[in-house]
Amino acid sequence: MKVEDFLKKHPIEIIEEKHPISKIKIREDYVMLFLEEDKIMIPIESYFSYGLKDLKGLDDDLLNRLRNEEAYLKAYRSCLRKLSVKDYTVKQIKDHLGKMDLDDERRKEIIDKLISYGMLDDEKYAQNKIAYYDRSNLSTRQIREKLKKDGINEEIINSYLFKDEFREIEKAKNIADRYSKTIRNKSLAGKKQSILNRLVSSGYSYEISKNIVNELDLSRDNEIELLKKEYLKAKNKYGKKYSDYELKQRIYGSLLNKGFSSDDIKKVMEV
How far apart are CA 208 and CA 50, in angstroms? Predict the structure, then answer.
């Protein structure tokens, strides 16, 4: 009988090469498979569902499926590590998962799992952040912007963030008081303008900010001494390039721009 005829009647079964399992370590929430060429970390439920304890090796198809299980497990554990340190929003964890080699279905599966376990909760996140930001004297507008940036939707924000006019004024006063103590080498008018700018940029209305600045008890002590120092600085600066009337005008304009009163400037310059 010819070889060709023999092979037709008795076809050779081609056995797919397997990847031998050399060792298995079962941990609390995952299983580590040690192969000759590599090792794979898989969910413990996958170990039992695939019946791996009865296998001596893996074929290519099962190996690829287990690689996908490993990617899922590593992504999930990565999320758990992040959430063990501090709270995150659903959007922030979605963004984190977006950097990993997972399909949308597996990403959604992880998100749903974390939500069901109470580890992802946008409402709780919003409540905690609002309380923290309020204690930090952030304006309602700033708090809203921060929550939106973190991915909290408008419905949740509106449910927990309320604008209390009296509380806004109180927070703005706290900021103004603290900031006023840090301002150095500025005229009284310059201090007021700096405080006003700080409050407005912090999200407080111009009306509230202006009223608070006007109510501040800012001392005029050392105003003339400070003016004299600024006068000498301006004189040295412009004296290199200008003289006589033009020099006086340059100095006067510079001091006026810094918030010193016209009368005080004239008195100092006449000395």
Answer: 67
The CATH number for 19-116, chosen from 3.40.50.1000, 3.40.640.10, 1.10.10.10, 1.10.600.10, is 1.10.10.10
Find out whether 167 and 181 touch, Cβ atoms under 8 Å: no
In what side-by-side order are the strands of the sheet with 30-35?
A: 39-43, 30-35, 19-26, 57-58
Residue closest to 68 by CA, chosen among 34, 107, 28:
107
pLDDT at 84 (0 to 100): 94
- From the list 146, 49, 163, the residue with the least C-alpha distance to 92 is 146
Q: Which of 195, 118, 131, 119 is nearest to 161 (CA)?
A: 131
Contact 76, 113 (CB under 8 A): yes
> What's the predicted TM-score (pTM) here?
0.70
For residue 179, give both structure tokens.
């900031």
Q: How far is Cα 34 from Cα 187, in angstroms, rounded to an integer?
A: 73
Q: Span 230-242, mean pLDDT?
A: 84
- Residue-wise pLDDT tens digits, 171-217: 999 999 888 878 777 788 888 889 999 999 999 999 999 999 988 87
